[in-house]
Amino acid sequence: MAQAGVVLDKDQFNCSICLDVLKDPVTIPCGHSYCSDCIRNYWDQDDYLGVFVCPQCRQNFNPRPLLARNTMLADVVEKFQRTGLQEATTPSNQSFAQADDVGCDVCTGRKNKAVKSCLVCLASYCDVHVQPHYESAAFKKHKLVSASRRLQETICGRHDKLLEVYCRTDKQCICYLCLTDEHKGHDTVLAEEEIQQKQRQLDDMRQSSQMRIHQREKEAQELRQAIFSVTRSARAAAEESDAVFTELIRSIELKRFEVRELIKAKEKTAVSQAEQLLEKIQKEITELKVNEAELDKLSHTEDHINFLQSCQSLQAPPVLSVLPSVSADPSLTFGPVMAAVSDFKGLLQEVCHGGFVCIYEKVRDIDIVGPPNPAAQQDTTQPSEGQTAVQMEASLGNPLPGLDQTPMSPLNPFITPQPALPTFAFSSFGSKLSTGSRQRQVQRRAHPRRK
């Protein structure tokens, strides 16, 4: 029958502070038992208040009770540990702490991964051992945060108290005892209140930053649209100018062909007329030579009778026809035609040069980013009240990113001014364009008109 006794649970012998099996258990006046070191450390934190509270029932004691070892409970715990009933079993859904994880401070043996840390207990707990903080009223005032290795940084190194106060004078967190020591008379506030104020300042800074980002994104979008528009317009202008110049080239080629054909036609006409006249002259020369031969033959006839009879039948020499005027100047050439072509070349050069200067001036006037405007560089965004937190960052020696002394463009502060574009000087017609720092003055020279 004795074997059918009450089954004991190991949680019944756990300290509600460390959540582990009681070690050197002591019982306080309200009847609750704790580990001797746990209750001493717990009350040491409230020593400056002069009021000592039971972690479970919250009963107050004043003065601080004396602690005595609970011998009977210690024997029961010892037997409980000896029977092995306290052996902890790890639930299947628990995960062991890895090298970079925070280990549970309650687990014995291989520790599980901690999920929460208590700022009052200054310990980290896994999913199982953190449950009393949710279920027990004794831990109602305990503050749980995400598991952290830096719990000791929340404790004052001088007084071993929780850092709950922020000193604005020295810009550091302190405990309540520091208020009566080196921080006496300083501008202090609760850490949570200071955190809320800093959060509001950060929110204002974030809103201001978002407004600036929105403004810059709008300007960037406008610049992208301008670039796209200029690129598309430049491509269309280049294609249209190519078509115009191609048409001009074709026109010049046609005129060149017409001049060449005109010269050839004139040559053919002049040569044909001269050849016809030459053929007529040659015919007359032949006739005259025949007549001359007959006269010479008659003059050498010895028969007088025959000579007289021949003289009776002798015809008068052929009369020469009237010939048109023929220019026998050996320097007769197409020189005046070449002079006229040269005049046309000079006139075309003048027209093309003047046209190119006009085109260049129109192209030069097309700009996306204009010259610097000092008035446009002033930021129109008014800082909000919370933006005074910028001095908070500056006081820490952290300059705001992206701010330097480089001159900025009035349209976009991230675009530095570019050097002035080189001017174009147009050479004579038919040669390549050259670039230089000086613009040549266009001079029109007069060509004498040849008649």
Describe the structure.
With 451 residues, the chain is mainly alpha-helical. Helices cover 40% and strands 8% of the residues. It is built from seven helices and twelve strands. A three-stranded antiparallel β-sheet has the order 6-5-7, with no helix packed on it. Strand 8 and strand 9 form a beta hairpin. The longest helix has 109 residues. The protein is rod-shaped, with a radius of gyration of 58 Å. The N and C termini lie far apart (149 Å). The N terminus and C terminus are likely disordered.
List the helices and strands and how they pair.
Blueprint: E1 25-27, E2 33-35, H1 36-45, E3 52-53, E4 60-61, H2 71-83, E5 116-118, E6 123-125, H3 131-135, E7 144-146, E8 165-167, E9 172-174, E10 188-190, H4 191-299, H5 304-312, H6 335-364, H7 390-395, E11 423-425, E12 434-436
Antiparallel strand pairs: 1-2, 3-4, 5-6, 5-7, 8-9, 8-10, 11-12
Report the C-alpha radius of gyration, rounded. 58 Å
The ordered H/E elements are EEHEEHEEHEEEEHHHHEE
Number of strands: 12
* Average pLDDT over all residues: 75
Measured by DSSP, the beta-strand proportion falls in 5-15%
* Poorly predicted spans: 1-7, 85-92, 380-451
What is the strand arrangement across the widest sheet?
6-5-7
Q: How does the overall form come out from the CA principal axes?
A: rod-shaped
Helix content: 40-55%
Distance between the termini: 149 Å
Number of helices: 7
Backbone structural class: mainly alpha
Largest sheet: 3 strands, antiparallel
